[in-house]
Write a structure and sequence with these properties.
single chain, eight-stranded parallel β-sheet, three-stranded antiparallel β-sheet, 11 strands, 15% strand
Amino acid sequence: MNKITQLFKIQYPIIQAGMIWNSGYKLASAVSNAGGLGLIGAGSMYPEVLREHIQKCKKATSKPFGVNVPMLYPNIEEIMKIIVDEGVKIVFTSAGNPKTWTPFLKENGIIVVHVVSSSAFALKAQDAGVDAVVAEGFEAGGHNGREETTTFTLIPMVKEKIKIPLIAAGGIANGRGMLAAMVLGADGVQVGSRFVASVESSAHENFKKTIINLKEGETQLTLKELAPVRLIKNKFYEDIQNLYKKNPTKEALIGLLGRARAKKGMFEGDLIEGELEIGQIAGIIHEIKPAAEIIYEMITDFELTRKEMLNFGF
């Protein structure tokens, strides 16, 4: 057992990221049943939809699972109340100040983890009383840090500063990546993109098929003036780049983004006008597989690679 498996009472130190429009109860329960920690992504759910997913997840697994809550979303008070009322034991918070909700969650006996993109934010999260942090590198899909620090450099820098358990995220999709992150100082890993292309993901099949055909360099971080996000280079992405050539105002960028653009792309499968969020590591994802098979392959790859390293004989 390591710090992460002990903290969450799980078999493997693998956490499935709570991604908007991808992480419903089917994926969360499948990951938890396979020995990892599944997370329901509250960011794409109205409060009552979240309640329904929590209740269905409790029926689908007897293992620990959690909820990921981006704190910039509306209805946050209602979401937190539902989490407590439904007896959720693990919450991952992101996109906000950890001091805002950590005391409330801790008072209700909930394990709290906060997602950060720098060692400075990691220290703030530790000071706020969280139980662990996820340090997410620039490679990650979806909303990202402004610092553009890669996972390879971020993990050792955060490790140097904090005393609480550290989970690495961004660019990890197989056992080799998991081992590399743990050698750099992580106690566990959070995996997003690999689980988007799973059978149980709630992503549209069009989006899943696009992911498994992506090549290196076909994603880009953009919209830094609003909230940095890594996207597949489709027509919507090109529209953003063309608007940038006109030196747009923040309001003009908001106007182009509009509402429900991520839902249109990832959930409804509009590959042209939709916002398609995925990480750089998509270039090594070639098949849509069940979540349990993904975890099995990661652990097998992790163990084989570790043995290979021991045989180097330095």
